[in-house]
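Quick start: what a row looks like.
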Amino acid sequence: MAKVITFGEIMMRLSPEGFKRFVQADTFTVVYGGAESNVAVSLSHFGIDTAFVTKLPAHQIGDAALNELRKFGVDTQHIARGGNRLGIYYAENGASQRGSFVIYDRAGSSMQTATASDFDWDSIFANAEWFHFTGITPALGNAVAAICLEACKKAKAKKLTISCDLNFRKKLWSTEQAEKIMSELMQYVDVCIANEEDAEKVFGIKGTHSDVTAGKLDTSDYEAVAKQLAERFNFSQVAITLRTSMSASDNRWAALLYDGKKYYSSKEYAIRIVDRVGGGDSFGAGLIYGNMMHFEPQKIVEFAVAASCLKHTIEGDFNHVSVEEVERLMNGDTSGRVSR
């Protein structure tokens, strides 16, 4: 049985070839992905038995998404089938000073129209140790938020560790809606993951010396943010990813981890980006893996950042890297030399 359960929506991603804009496209590349499914695939690559829970339409497109998960060893036995459609999002890859751009087409998807009866949480959580979701899932609508809350209550009753990536999406809900719903869900969460903007957008907790748009981040700002989040919701850990964006093509990437007593800052990587979608999800997977392997806090954050750094070099939503590759980068092999 799966040790880690992730819950959310997997979608079809359609992108123009290379760096073409939507108006230039005459073909689209198809990949599948979504925040929690991305975490499940990463953990499966790391050797963790992982199950992804969602609802997919009972037709060939739903089958295609299901098979993509099975291909990488993710347990799909608890995926409900039904509804009319798979959610879609269109992603235009940015370059240099032109940022990437996303358009959602997910209204009325099978997951968005799911009901509580689609999921037997007692069966899903049997023998599991960890439950992960993100702020994207409850943003799909009140019914899905209620299902997510039910899952959290059941997971807590079964003494699972619960992690949540805040993942605020302004195209899905307002800050007011997010704060109301996420505040209730956070009462059950042990490990909170956020980026440099999420805490501000969801809970109004922000740093005072940083300017994300200008690419200026002050680590001490986010130490204060992490502490405020931990104190407000009694989290055992708060992890915040720190992206300094010089352009769409070049970022600096790091993170900090707060365990309620001490702050742990990772090394910073300079990244030439191939595909940044799924970068935060790969960090979350690395954080979960490090905790499940009982790493020391410094090693947990270093592993998570290195895993996520590598994801930025891989096309698609999923992070196709092994533990050994992550550890090589952690240990200083940043040359990118050919391995023969």
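That is the whole record. The mean pLDDT is 93. The radius of gyration is 19 Å.
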